[in-house]
Amino acid sequence: MFDIGFTELLLVGVVALIVLGPERLPRAARMAGLWMRKARASWYSMRSEFERELADEDLRRSLKQGGEQAKALKQEIEQSTRAIGDELSAAPRAAEEAVQSIRRDIEDGASPDGNTPGSEREEAAVATKEGSAP
What are phi and psi of 109, to 5 degrees? Predict the structure, then answer.
């Protein structure tokens, strides 16, 4: 952290012993230790708070992306639902048109397969009169 070697630390200790004296040095060392502990605790506290804020920001970003994806999925589902609803509402109309077409064909005298009713019987009767079997 401070890049202090053993010799520099020993020199600081000797100077502190000379300046403070043997009576006040233990109390000064204890106070320096307390200050270092408090400084380290506040550093760790600030660091953990900063990391929490970063995690909260990442969480917010993830939630925002998830919300956008959910919104896109909702729109896609709504479009699919509308398309299916349109197809389902068109199906009865198409069936009714087919029924009407068949009814018109029947009323006009044509069978649904394109032949007129009774045409097969008439052909069979004509064939028997001519002497050939159908």
Answer: 100, 5
CB contact burial 19-41 (16+ within 10 A = b; e otherwise): eeeeeeeeeeeeeeeeeeeeeee
Q: Which amino acid is at 32?
A: A
User: Residue written as tokens 């993830």?
Assistant: 62
Q: Where are the domains of the chain?
A: 9-107
Q: Give CA separation, 32 vs 13, 16, 21, 28, 37, in Å.
A: 12, 12, 16, 6, 9
Q: What are the pLDDT digits (tens) for 90-118?
A: 888 888 888 899 998 888 875 555 555 55
Q: Per-residue pLDDT averaged across 45-56, rounded?
A: 92
Identify whether the C-beta of residue 89 lies closer than 8 Å to the C-beta of residue 96: no
Name the pTM for this structure. Answer: 0.40
pLDDT score for 110:
56
| Residue 99 tokens, joined | 């029924």
| Contact yes or no for 122/132 (Cβ under 8 A) | no
What amino acid occupies position 6? F
